[in-house]
Design goal:
By secondary structure, the protein is of the alpha+beta class. The protein has 6 domains: 35 residues, no CATH class; 161 residues, no CATH class; 82 residues, Immunoglobulin-like (Sandwich); 123 residues, Immunoglobulins (Immunoglobulin-like), CATH 2.60.40; 122 residues, Immunoglobulin-like (Sandwich); 122 residues, Immunoglobulin-like. The protein is 18% helix and 39% strand. The protein contains 13 helices and 48 strands. The strands form 14 sheets. Strands 26, 27, 29, 30 and 31 form a 5-stranded antiparallel beta sheet that branches. A 4-stranded antiparallel beta sheet has the order 15-17-20-19, with no helix packed on it. Strands 16-22-21-18 form a 4-stranded mixed beta sheet, with no helix packed on it. A hairpin with a 3-residue loop joins strand 1 and strand 2.
C-alpha cells in the first residue's frame, strides 16, 4: 500500500491555497476524505507503536547491561507478565514475556571471535552486525546503545548517538523497512528467562542464549579458615578476608571473645584465663555481610579456647619445656640433671593416669622398663632412649586430637643380659592437651561467564593454598556416579593412570599435578605453551564446573560445583554438504557440493580416532576451526582465503595406511564464525595391498 506523507500533504494544501477563489469554489465536487483518512491512519499507527518501541528500547538497554562484565544479576523476580532483573549497581530492568514479532527488525547481540559482544540486527530473517562508521558496534565499553524509532513516514530508524540523529533501516534489497504494513508487529527481544542458583539464562528472540552469573560480585571468604580454630587463653589470631560487593558487616562472637573485622582482616582474641569461668570457651565467630541491594549472607568459623600447656616445667630430675602442640604432635626440650644416664619419654591419657597412676605404663610386665630392657638386648637402645639434653623431642604416634595427656619422663639403667631395666629417677609427669583437628574449611568460589553455544569461561577462587583439581563435566556424565566422592575418585584416577610412571619414579608429585591460587579457564582455547587446544563444549547441554582439594592423590575437601547450560546453536545459513571421497592407496580426493552455493565453507580431513574423542560433531568443528585459524596465522594468510564457495575439491596425500579418516565440511563466515551444522563423511585408506576404490557420498551429518 502507498501512503501519502505528511510532507506531501502540506505541499498539496499549500498549492490549493495559492489558486484563485473561482477555482476554489470550483473544487466543491472534490472529495479529499480518502487522503485525510490515509494520513490519519498513518499517524494513528505510528502513535500506537510508540509504547511498544519504548519497551523495545528498554529491553535493548537491559540487554546491554546483561552482557556488561562490570555488573551482574543479583536477583530475578517473576511477575504476571515478565521478569524484573536486579543488577549489582542497584538498578533494575523489566523484561516482558516473549512474544513473536512480524516484519519488525530485531536487535540482538553476538559474541565474535575476539570474545567481545557486538550488536546485531535481523531483518527479513537475516542477521548482520550493526555497523557504525564502518565498524561493528560494541555492546559494552564506551559504545552508545542503539535506539530504535519510527519516522513520520512510518519507516524503522536506528540511532547510534543516543537519538540525536538517526537513519532508516534497510532490508536485504536496500529498501527501507516499513513499521506500519498490514500484519507487522513488534515482538520482545527476549524469548524466555530461566535461572538457577548460579546463573540466569536469557534466551533471545533469535534463539541464542546469554548466560550471566548470579551474585558473582557479592561474596566473602575467610582465607585458610579451619573448621575449628584452637586458641590458648588470651591468644590473638588474624585471618585474611576476601570480599566483593559488601557494603556493611555485622560481627557475632561468643561471650568474652574479642572479634573485629576491618581492612580485609578478621582479628579474633580468646578470653583470658582470668575470665574463663564466665566465658564461652567454645562457640562460633561469624560475619554477616550485606550488599547495597539488601542482600545478606554470612561466613562462620568455630573457635575453642583452652589453657596454654606450652612452657617450662622444672622437676627434681628433669626440666621439660613444651614448645609446640598441634592436633597430632607435641614437641619439647628435655634437660636431665644427670647427663650420664639414659632417660625416656612416653605418654598416657590424663584420664587413665589420674585413675591408675603411672605404674601401669612404666612397671607393668609389658611396660616401658621391660620394653627398654629388650631394646638393650637387641642393641637398639640408643635409637629409642636418650642421654644428655635433647631439644627437639617429639611425641606423635597414637596421639588423638583434642585429648588431654601426660608426658611421662624417667631415668633408667638397662641390663642387656637379663633384658630388664630399673628406674634411676622418679617418674615425672607433665600435662598437655592436643589441639582440635586442623581441618582447613576449603571452599571454592566458582564464577561462570561468557557462556555461548560452543564454550564458557570460569574463574575458580580457593579459600586456601592447598592443591586442587578443577574442570568442566557434563551433568549427564556426572549423574552416572553414585555420589560426589565417587566422582572425585574418578578424576584422581585419570591423573594416576596418565602419570603412573612419573608418580612412581618420583619425577612428578601430586603438587606438580594440582593447582593453587585463582585459576581462570576458557573453553575452547588454544594453549600455546602446550601446543594443544582445550575442547569446546557441546551446545544446548547442562554442565558443571567442579573443584576439590587433592593432596597426595586423595580428595581432601568437599566437592564444589557450579551449574550452567550452553546455548543452542542456531545456523545463520541453511546448507548441507554432499561429500564424495575417492581413495587411491594412501591418497584421497575429496569433492564437496553445498546445497546452498552462496554459503562460504571449510572442509578438512582428520583421522577418525581423533574426531571420535569429541562428544558431538559441532564440538569437533569448533576445534577444527581453531586449528585452521592458527595455521592461517602461522602462514600469514587470511582465513577467508581458505574458504570455499560452490562445488570444490582437494587432494590429501601420504595419509596413514589402512586408517579410518573423517571429512568434515561446515559453513564459515569470512569473519570466522560457524554458520551451519557440519556434515561428516568417513573413508579408509588402503593398506599395503591395493583394494577396490572407495567412494563415500554423504548428504547429511553422521
Amino acid at each position: 500500500m502507498k501512503f501519502f506523507t505528511m510532507r506531501r500533504l502540506a505541499a498539496c494544501v499549500a498549492a490549493l491555497l495559492l489558486v484563485s477563489p473561482p477555482l476554489l469554489t470550483g473544487c466543491d465536487d472534490y472529495d479529499d476524505s480518502e487522503l485525510w483518512q490515509n494520513v490519519n491512519d498513518l499517524k494513528s499507527r505510528i502513535e500506537a507503536l510508540e509504547t511498544k518501541i519504548g519497551q523495545m528500547n528498554t529491553e535493548i538497554a537491559a540487554l546491554q547491561k546483561i552482557v556488561d562484565d562490570a555488573v551482574t544479576v543479583v536477583k530475578v523476580e517473576k511477575g504476571a507478565d515478565g521478569y524484573v532483573i536486579y543488577f549489582s549497581d542497584n538498578t533494575t530492568a523489566e523484561i516482558k514475556n516473549g512474544t513473536a514479532g512480524a516484519d519488525a527488525p530485531v536487535i540482538g547481540v553476538k559474541q565474535d571471535t575476539d570474545e567481545v559482544y557486538y550488536w546485531t540486527i535481523t531483518t527479513d530473517g537475516k542477521t548482520e552486525w550493526l555497523m557504525a562508521g564502518g565498524a561493528k558496534l560494541r555492546v559494552t565499553g564506551e559504545s552508545v546503545k542503539p535506539v530504535m524509532s519510527v519516522d513520520d513516514e512510518g519507516y524503522w530508524t536506528i540511532s547510534y548517538d543516543g537519538g540525536k540523529t538517526s537513519e532508516r533501516i534497510l532490508d536485504a534489497a536496500g529498501d527501507p523497512v516499513s513499521a506500519v504494513t498490514e500484519g507487522s508487529s513488534i515482538g520482545s527481544l527476549f524469548k524466555s528467562v530461566n535461572y538457577d542458583d548460579n546463573n540466569v539464562y536469557f534466551e533471545l528472540s533469535d534463539g541464542s542464549i546469554v548466560t550471566v552469573p548470579v551474585r558473582s560480585n557479592f561474596y566473602m571468604l575467610i582465607r585458610k579458615a579451619p573448621e575449628v580454630a584452637t586458641f590458648v587463653f588470651g591468644e590473638t589470631k588474624v585471618w585474611d578476608v576476601e570480599s566483593a560487593g559488601v557494603t556493611k558487616t555485622l560481627v557475632s562472637k561468643p561471650d568474652e571473645w574479642k572479634v573485629t573485622y576491618a581492612d580485609g582482616k578478621l582479628t579474633v582474641t580468646a578470653p583470658t584465663e582470668a575470665h574463663k569461668e564466665c566465658a564461652d570457651l567454645r562457640g562460633t565467630v561469624g560475619i554477616t555481610y550485606f550488599s547495597a541491594n539488601g542482600q545478606a549472607d554470612a561466613v562462620m568459623m568455630d573457635v575453642v579456647a583452652d589453657a596454654d600447656y606450652r612452657g617450662e616445667t622444672v622437676g627434681e630430675d628433669f626440666t621439660v619445656n613444651i614448645t609446640e602442640i598441634t592436633d597430632k604432635i607435641v614437641t619439647m626440650a628435655v634437660t636431665p640433671k644427670n647427663t650420664e644416664t639414659y632417660w625416656y619419654v612416653g605418654y598416657g591419657t590424663k584420664e587413665e593416669i589420674d585413675a591408675k597412676g603411672t605404674d601401669y605404663l612404666v612397671k607393668a610386665p609389658n611396660g616401658y622398663l621391660s620394653m627398654l630392657g629388650f631394646y638393650a638386648t637387641m642393641g637398639w637402645l640408643d635409637n629409642y632412649a636418650s642421654k644428655g639434653m635433647k631439644s627437639d623431642l617429639s611425641l606423635s604416634i597414637g596421639l588423638q586430637p583434642a585429648t588431654e595427656y601426660y608426658a611421662v619422663i624417667f631415668g633408667f639403667e638397662a641390663n642387656a643380659a637379663t633384658s630388664s631395666s630399673t628406674l634411676t629417677t622418679g617418674v615425672m609427669t607433665v600435662p598437655f592437651k592436643t589441639q582440635e583437628p586442623v581441618v582447613i574449611n576449603t571452599v571454592y568460589r566458582i564464577d561462570v561467564s561468557d557462556v555461548s553455544w560452543y564454550g564458557a569461561k570460569y574463574v575458580c577462587v580457593p579459600s586456601d593454598d592447598l592443591g586442587y583439581l578443577h574442570g568442566f563435566i557434563r551433568k549427564s556424565e556426572f549423574d552416572t556416579y553414585d555420589d560426589d566422592a565417587a566422582f572425585m575418585t574418578s578424576r584422581i584416577e585419570i591423573y594416576k593412570k596418565a602419570y603412573k610412571d612419573e608418580l612412581e619414579s618420583g619425577a612428578l608429585t601430586w603438587a606438580d599435578l594440582t593447582f593453587t591460587e585463582t585459576q581462570t579457564v576458557v573453553a575452547p582455547a588454544y594453549i600455546e605453551e602446550a601446543g594443544a587446544t582445550r575442547m569446546g563444549l557441546v551446545d544446548d547441554t547442562e554442565y558443571y564446573v567442579y573443584a576439590f582439594s587433592c593432596t597426595d592423590g586423595n580428595a581432601t575437601s568437599p566437592l564444589s560445583k557450579a551449574a550452567f547450560k550452553t546455548g543452542k546453536f542456531t545456523p545463520s545459513e541453511e546448507c548441507t554438504f554432499e561429500i564424495t571421497t575417492t581413495v587411491e592407496r594412501q591418497d584421497v580426493t575429496v569433492n564437496v557440493v553445498p546445497s546452498n552455493r552462496n554459503v562460504t565453507y571449510y572442509f578438512s580431513v582428520t583421522r577418525a580416532a581423533q574426531q571420535e574423542q569429541f562428544d558431538a560433531d559441532l564440538q569437533f568443528a569448533v576445534d577444527d576451526l581453531i586449528w585452521t585459524k592458527i595455521w592461517a596465522e602461522s602462514q600469514q594468510i587470511t582465513l577467508s582465503s581458505l574458504l570455499s564457495k560452490g562445488e570444490d575439491s582437494n587432494k590429501w596425500t601420504d595419509l596413514w595406511a589402512a586408517t579410518a579418516y573423517i571429512v568434515c565440511a561446515y559453513g564459515v563466515s569470512e569473519d570466522g564464525a560457524i554458520t551451519t551444522r557440519p556434515t561428516l563423511a568417513r573413508f579408509v585408506t588402503k593398506g599395503t595391498i591395493d583394494q577396490t576404490s572407495v567412494k563415500n557420498a554423504a548428504a547429511s551429518a553422521m
